[in-house]
């Protein structure tokens, strides 16, 4: 990530390039984008820059199952190919990227901390100190902190302070949302990227990225949940008052529907995937018993495919979809943020394109549901404007939101994380200085 221009005059806004990589269970996608300072007032809140995608490459994923790298060689191969394609299209070479993380039993926890200000104005150093105190509590063996985010500050007894810089008080407090994950899956993902001669600038939790891309301002402010249904995993994030307050992931996704169909109809995985895309639905239709679908049985060279009623297929799809949504509903209610979400749920991710899914989600979650596509990024090819690309686009938006984030430790394998003078720190500094 090369930030163009020095750190001289703060008023001259600069442009830069940014590379992101989404390593999923069904596809690997790399995007290279130019960030330009935005001048119009009508931008999405909190975004200081316009994002123009100048290179994109995507590949069928290999060596990844349920978001976890299970074969380094094959994963490395898929990563190389997609980064290569994006580099060629953008006409530049990439050395480090922002990557998302789905696996590793993501867990959200809330912490609070207070420091003594002694009647002085709060400055950057104080904020760093209170964030550090909050984040320290989350360091556990074999777990890594992926995000530690302030949800709100308090000065003395006044809660709900959004930005305490320059304000006066005796005690500065912070409520923090700390998201942790297992260290091993993070290291293996990083390894497969390092083997492609690339370094990981920063890891971002998939639910956070998807939410940034698919939710609109009002949803972020009033509170909403974003459910990203991928091939091997489904993640859920909750935003409230513009902040990411809760994240979770389950290892069930669209591939499980395909697998269920392949087993239930005893056909090959490819045939099941095709049937799911062409005819699959989570909604029983009135003509399902009469509609016949032809299936090629596995290992049968005969020319005569089997004819089965569509209702048989719908039942298989619906059973898995209902189970997944019920699991998400329970997770959401257990999180304690059910009220913050209110009635607003946004479905995104590749598997959200299944026919009848929004209706099934409305029925089971008991909330309003819409399908979310990635917003606020220019230059995406038509094929990449769908919900399957939300996580990748969210990674492009993320650096503008990273200015307050704190990282108590060096993080995975000594990565230069925000706050330790790494590139991302310079970048968020640069985004702040550019105002």
From TrEMBL:
Keyword check for Iron, yes or no.
no
Task of the protein: Cell division protein that is involved in the assembly of the Z ring. May serve as a membrane anchor for the Z ring.
One GO term under biological process is: cell division
Organism of origin:
Mesorhizobium cantuariense
Q: Does the record's keyword annotation contain Membrane?
A: yes
Subunit description: Self-interacts. Interacts with FtsZ.
Identification of the protein by name: Cell division protein FtsA
Write out the annotated subcellular location.
Cell membrane
The lineage, from the top, is:
Bacteria, Pseudomonadati, Pseudomonadota, Alphaproteobacteria, Hyphomicrobiales
């Amino acid at each position: 990530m090369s930030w163009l221009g020095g750190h001289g005059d703060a008023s001259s806004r600069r442009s830069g390039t940014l590379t992101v990589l989404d390593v999923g269970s069904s596809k690997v996608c790399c995007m290279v984008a130019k960030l330009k300072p935005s001048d119009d007032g009508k931008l999405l809140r909190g975004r200081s820059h316009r994002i123009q995608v100048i290179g994109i490459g995507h590949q069928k994923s290999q060596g990844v199952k349920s978001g976890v790298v299970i074969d380094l060689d094959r994963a490395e191969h898929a990563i190389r190919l997609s980064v290569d394609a994006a580099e060629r299209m953008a006409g530049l070479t990439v050395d480090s990227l922002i990557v998302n993380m789905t696996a590793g039993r993501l867990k959200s926890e809330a912490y609070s901390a207070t420091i003594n200000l002694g009647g002085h104005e709060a400055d950057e150093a104080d904020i760093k100190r209170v964030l550090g105190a909050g984040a320290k509590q989350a360091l556990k063996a074999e777990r890594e902190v992926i995000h530690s985010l302030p949800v709100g500050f308090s000065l003395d007894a006044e809660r709900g302070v959004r930005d305490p810089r320059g304000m006066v008080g005796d005690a500065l407090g912070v409520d923090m949302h700390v998201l942790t994950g297992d260290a091993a899956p993070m290291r293996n993902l990083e390894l497969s990227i390092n083997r492609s001669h690339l370094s990981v600038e920063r890891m971002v939790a998939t639910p956070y990225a998807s939410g940034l891309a698919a939710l609109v301002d009002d949803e972020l402010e009033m509170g909403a949940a974003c459910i990203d249904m991928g091939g091997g995993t489904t993640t859920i994030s909750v935003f409230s008052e513009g902040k990411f307050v809760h994240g979770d992931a389950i290892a069930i996704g669209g591939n499980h529907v395909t697998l269920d169909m392949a087993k239930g109809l005893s056909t090959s995985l490819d045939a099941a995937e095709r049937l799911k895309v062409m005819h699959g639905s989570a909604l029983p239709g009135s003509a399902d018993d009469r509609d016949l679908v032809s299936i090629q049985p596995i290992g049968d060279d005969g020319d005569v495919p089997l004819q089965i009623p569509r209702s048989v297929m719908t039942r298989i799809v619906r059973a898995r979809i209902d189970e997944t949504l019920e699991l998400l509903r329970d997770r959401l209610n257990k999180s304690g943020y059910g009220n913050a979400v209110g009635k607003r749920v946004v479905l995104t991710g590749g598997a959200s394109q299944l026919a009848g899914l929004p209706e099934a989600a409305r029925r089971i979650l008991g909330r309003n549901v819409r399908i979310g596509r990635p917003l606020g990024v220019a230059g995406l090819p038509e094929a990449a404007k769908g919900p399957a690309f939300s996580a990748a686009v969210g990674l492009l938006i993320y650096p503008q939101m990273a200015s307050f984030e704190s990282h108590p430790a060096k993080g995975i394998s000594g990565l230069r994380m925000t706050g330790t003078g790494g590139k991302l720190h310079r970048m968020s500094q640069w985004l702040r200085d550019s105002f």
